[in-house]
Amino acid sequence: MDRLQFSGEFESLRRPGHSVLELDKEQGKELRYLQKRLLSKLGSTLRDYDLMVPGSRVMVAISGGKDSYALLCLLEHFRLKKIVDFEILAVHLDQAQPGYDGEPLRLWLADQGFAYRILRQDTYSVVTDKIAEGSTYCSLCSRLRRGVLYAAASELSCPSIALGHHRDDANETLLLNLFYSGQLKSMPVRLHSDDGRHTVIRPLMGIAEADIKRYSELMGFPILPCNLCGSQSGLKRVRVKQLIQVLAQENEKVPGNMAAALGNVRPSHLHDLDVMQVWADRSEAVRPWKGKTKRAAIEVET
User: Fold this and answer.
1) Domain holding 107: CATH number?
2) Of 299, 222, 213, whose CA–CA distance to 34 is shortest?
């Protein structure tokens, strides 16, 4: 880590997580209803996957995109409910991209009253030097960024790192791995680092991107453009996203059904021998299924 560029422990006149826009009556009502619905989904994910450790400090990785802004605000509103006692620290990484201007983000964090850190490390030059022109930057960029965040989490005493990936990110990752790497996997809701020191959590996994986009509009988040991956064309993730959109036009339940499938796996119907063996040796208490028992319908988000 090159240096700690900015830090903040500010007190705002209003609670963190408020809209910076002057909303009319209808927009204000829409925001309150939408936020309530998103908080309900976020709360369910936190509870179902046991993501929050009481008394812990959670680093929220904030990129300057709509998803991480939404995650930060929703986690703060959830924290205020005092269901679980935890602290939030927003951390942003300046990757030294040409034309980068993080001032709007810093001013927003200060005005909102969030505790934050802004770090700087030139991962941009590493990525553009190591990756051939025309190849995808995303994989290496993500690994480098994750390494910086892990190091910062240790320094800042944050055992958990919250990322802003949502339902549609998981769907796209599922198809990317299926089509291009021959693996059946997606984004885990909770992932322990290899050394066991940190846990990556994704509390927005039950939320659709369209809802986050509208929430971002109503909240007036100052979005920072990404000049690295955003400058590339023909990305496989974009093509997969377009495929899902086409299928959703034919059947609007497709995205929700894909998300439901990630939590409704039938190992006995897959071809991985190790998985089949583990499933065959499972305890009788784990998802007993005799073929005739009526099971509850799976709720999917449309």
Assistant:
1) 3.40.50.620
2) 213
What does pTM read for this prediction? Answer: 0.88
If phi > 0 it is left, if psi is from -120 to 50 it is alpha, else beta; for residue 121 that is beta
Buried b (16+ CB within 10 A) or exposed e, 177-190: eeeeeeeeebbebe
Would 246 be classed as within a structural domain? Answer: no
Q: Choose among 153, 177, 176: nearest CA to 163.
A: 153
CA dihedral (23, 27, 28, 32) positive or negative: negative
pLDDT in tens, 72-86: 999 999 999 999 999
Which structural domain, as residue segments, surrounds residue 215? 3-241
Residue 271 lies in a domain: no
pLDDT tens string 12-52? 445 789 999 999 999 999 999 999 999 999 999 999 999 99
